[in-house]
Amino acid sequence: MAKDYRFEKRKFMVGGIAVSIVLIYLVRLFFLQISTDDYKKNADSNAFLKKIQYPSRGAIYDRYGKLLVFNQPAYDIKVVPREVENLDTLDLCSSLYITPEQFKRTMEEMKDRRRNPGYSKYTEQLFMSQLSAEECSVFQEKLFKFRGFYVQRRTIRQYAYNAAAHALGDIGEVSQKDIEGDNYYMGGDYIGKLGVESSYEKHLRGEKGVEVLLRDAHGRIQGHYMDGKYDRRAVPGRDLTLGLDVDLQLLGERLLKNKIGSIVAIEPETGEILCLISSPNYDPHLMIGRQRGKNHVMLQRDKQKPLLNRALMGVYPPGSTFKPAQGLTFLQEGIIQSSTTFPCSHGFHYGRLTVGCHAHPSPLPLIPAIATSCNSYFCWGLFRMFGDKKYGRPQNAITVWKDHMVAQGFGYKLGVDLPGEKRGLIPNAQYYDKAYRGHWNGLTVISIAIGQGEILATPLQIANLSATIANRGYFTTPHLVKAIKGAPLDSLYRAKRWTGIDRKHYEDVVAGMRAAVTGGTCRMAGIILPGVEICGKTGTAQNRGHDHSAFMGFAPMHKPKIAIAVYVENGGFGAVYGVPIGTLMMEQYLNKKLSPASETMAEELSNRVIFYDDSER
Ligand SMILES: [Zn+2]
Question: I need a surface site. Which of 3, 75, 196, 269 has the fewest CB within 10 A?
């Protein structure tokens, strides 16, 4: 019998194809599950399940070790779309307290790659985030019924005090921009928003870990891939210790209740910020978890702008708190000696120009000029400096003058470790040449001598001036974070920045600020806190409507422990709000408590309401 060679040949061919197919699958399997090089490329396939391990975020403490911010558990609901089958949507919705419409919208948005570029039906996708244990409990019990759904344990923040919301900031879900800017982040991750939560994000967040699990053909988890070779343990975030004294912060927030303004206190030697108050403020608890979005919108719409951190974003005329910086500049430039006297007849008069002042002995030298806050004295000083022949032209004089202001911390951002700091304004020659077409002199711009006119400063800059005077010639860039556990602080917050003005000139200005308390505009400070040698300077800044009340000071005079600035919008004379608030704050910080009389005064100040509606301004 002749063999059917054609049939044999076909059989061989069919066999060959089958062998090839098997080979191809083997090769594919090799690349999928064996080849380590290609693991990353195939990590999104259905053979693997990557489970993220979230690290605990660093805690935040105050300067005395009081816990301010810590973590509480929260739960995210995740879904692997490919694994979902026979889902009872209504049952799932009721156990998560959502409507079927919300379910449908969430699933659609998840699949929209513009919103969710990391979408893959084989990997875990975020379904809902930041549920409390309570919100999640029913769902968790029924989890076995919802194939493809998982519960991921996370942590969100919790606050020990209703205080310091602006300084602390908060955390929220990453934006698309965050994800694009740093490949550490994935959709659904949390990131610090504002405050130290934002500026120390990289220290606080730690490092995510991952478990790489292997599935079988039915999608069931078989165990760790390569015995956990590709697993990474999460690294916890670093704890922060702030320079903030939470009791001082609480008192400051109480004193500014029902008012718009700011208080900033600094430890002069180190530049550590002892309190950072911006009023009105808000309860940091509003920013926790799922309610954050809704509450954030509510605060954003509030006309009093509680989200604005006025301590470093509010720019104000410093008024008379600026005078010590002028005195120091005139002394250093040899424009005046401390014994130089200027006349004041209820103000500065030159031709038709008048800058008013109040009643006090005249003529007078520098120290009583600071103590009584004489406008005339500093106007004469600036007029003399801007007309001095050694500079040639007022344009050159203002350049020298501006350099002194900048060296004392004005006109530029100081570099505080918080986002959003404003630089204020110190005008230069070009500014006035443009405004006055080149024709101007000391008289034209005389109001800058008393911290008015174009001059703008933040409360942080005014507090920093006070620290600079307390230190007799240098400051350390103000900063909120005193220590990072396991990492060094930025060297910027260790360096001394010298102003270039001689120490002896500071001693004259310090004497003037001391005289303001013993017999000048800050006498109230000596009455409230008689046992401490306080140095102070009031400020009353003219405003379109009601004047702003300001105070700058430090204590004690020798070896100062605290330097402070108080700014109360529409508060009137500096002596009315600035001095008592500033002094009570010093008392709290130095004595760790208030005397009964001071407590009564604090309660009374706290109850006073000074809000004006916009039409009055
Ligand atoms: Zn005067």
Answer: 3
